[in-house]
Specification:
The longest helix is centred in the N-terminal third of the chain and has 48 residues. α1 packs antiparallel against α2. The two termini are 62 Å apart. This protein is 26% helix and 43% strand. It is built from five helices and 20 strands. The chain is elongated and about 145 Å long. β13 and β14 form a beta hairpin. By secondary structure, the protein is α+β, with helices and mostly antiparallel strands.
Length: 449
């Protein structure tokens, strides 16, 4: 407040000095005129001129006083605003340049009205409230594209390679317990090992910041080995069979819609809809073959598709906590009932309908950027399948045992930017349940235009 009173004093002193100098100058000129040479008429004319000059100077000083009063009012408003900010606890840190600018404003008051200044401050505050979340590194975007979605790329072509290994052992007892301790019958130990290699070509096109379209074409090659030992109470009788083959899998198309763009308070929220067509080789009606000793029964061909139409929908969320990103996905899948000429694969035809059931899956994880060209991620995925049902021609629906599965895996991945447009996305997953692949390795090479 001392500054304000000092400024008032500085403003009023020049006006007082001007008035005093004008009066003194007038009195001096008056004293210098000899009374003997000035007539009464000349004296009256000089008095009128002096009065008019004083009136003009008084008008000028009055205008200066009004402009200075406006500057004082503006300065007082600034002081009150700063006092309010200090009392509310917000203490802005001023640099040396800000302090110099403040001093210049004190010496030369701004001509901008206080109302316009307050409007500009309000607009700036609103813009800060709508400020977007921190920008992601390019490597994090590459990794996030596989688990969530990225709308900043107009066209992306992504070839990928996936290898998975699956093994399962079954102990089959054919007999009964005697005296609750001795087993009488046959023991059969079966083992199935499957190696699957899948090559996908995925194309994504971004229409605008809210819509994106995707189409994927897979090619699958599968090699399976069946082993059995223990038939006829003999541990030496061991039978094995191998089946391999490949072909085009089920082609899929998807559409993504961004419900809400990420901000400081809300995550990035994207809705998706996916449709799968039965373009691959279905597993129904494939002929079965029995081994020499009857220990094994296995298919003679390899299926590369499900044989039915399917659709899924869900949403995914992603939130940036620079340099990390947390993401969550939830999807529900549905399959259409289809009718086939043969369901069993045994000699003869067994026509009927099949319903593969529905599924519910979710995934969550964490990705963080190590640098602009490299990022790491960890994720957990789980999917629940309902039981598959079949309806023989003219019969009721029947649930197939052991088809309600639960798959879960824990994965880690890394992304490396190989060039300006090409990246490499790697991931390794470990199965956590009996129905999951033992492990899975994936390499993806997204190229963006």
């Amino acid at each position: 407040m001392n500054m304000k009173w000092t400024s008032v004093t500085v403003v009023l002193l020049p006006g007082m000095l001007v008035i005093q100098s004008a009066v003194a100058e007038t009195l001096t000129q008056k004293n210098q005129l000899p009374e003997t040479q000035v007539s009464q008429q000349a004296k009256s004319q000089i008095s009128e001129q002096e009065l008019n000059a004083l009136k003009q100077k008084l008008i000028i000083l009055n205008k200066q006083l009004k402009s200075q009063q406006q500057a004082i009012n503006q300065m007082a408003q600034q002081v009150l605003k700063q006092e309010a900010q200090l009392q509310s606890g917000s203490k802005p840190q001023q640099t040396r340049e800000t302090a110099v600018a403040s001093n210049e404003n004190i010496e030369r008051p701004s001509s901008v009205p206080a109302s316009e200044v307050s409007k500009k401050q309000q607009v700036t505050t609103n813009q800060e409230g709508r400020k977007k979340a921190p920008d992601r590194a390019r490597s994090t975007d590459d990794l996030l594209q596989e688990t969530h979605n990225v709308f900043t790329r107009k066209l992306t072509i992504e070839p990928s390679f996936t290898y998975s290994y699956y093994s399962r052992k079954d102990l089959i007892l054919r007999g009964f317990l005697a005296l609750d301790a001795i087993f009488l019958g046959n023991l059969n130990l079966d083992r199935v090992r499957t190696n699957t290699t899948q090559i996908d070509l995925t194309t994504r096109y971004t229409l605008n910041q809210d819509w994106q379209f995707e189409i994927g074409v897979p090619y699958m090659f599968r090699w399976t080995q069946y082993d059995s030992v223990g038939e006829g109470n003999s541990s030496q009788r061991y039978e094995t069979a191998q089946v391999d083959g490949g072909g085009i899998g089920d082609v899929s198309a998807a559409v993504y819609y961004r419900i809400n763009a990420e901000s400081n308070d809300w995550p990035d929220w994207v809705w998706n809809l996916r449709l799968r067509a039965p373009t691959g080789k279905d597993p129904f009606g494939i002929a079965l073959e029995t081994s020499e000793f009857g220990n094994l029964t296995y298919p003679t061909e390899v299926a590369t598709g499900s044989g039915v139409w399917g659709a899924s929908t869900g949403f995914s969320l992603a939130k940036t906590f620079d340099p990390a990103i947390v993401f969550f996905n939830l999807n529900y899948g549905w399959t259409r009932e289809e009718e086939f000429d043969d369901l069993s694969g045994n000699p003869g035809l067994s026509p009927g309908k099949i319903d593969l059931g529905d599924y519910l899956d979710y995934s969550l994880g964490l990705a963080f950027a190590v640098s602009e060209r490299m990022s790491l991620a960890m994720s957990f995925n789980q999917r629940f399948y309902t039981k598959t049902k079949q309806q023989p021609l003219g019969g009721p629906w029947e649930k197939i045992p052991r088809t309600d599965t639960n798959t879960a895996s824990l994965g880690i991945g890394a992304t490396i930017a190989l060039s300006e447009n090409l990246s490499m996305v790697t991931s390794i997953g470990a199965g956590l349940t009996e129905d999951s692949p033992d492990y899975q390795i994936s390499l993806r090479f997204p190229y963006r235009f």
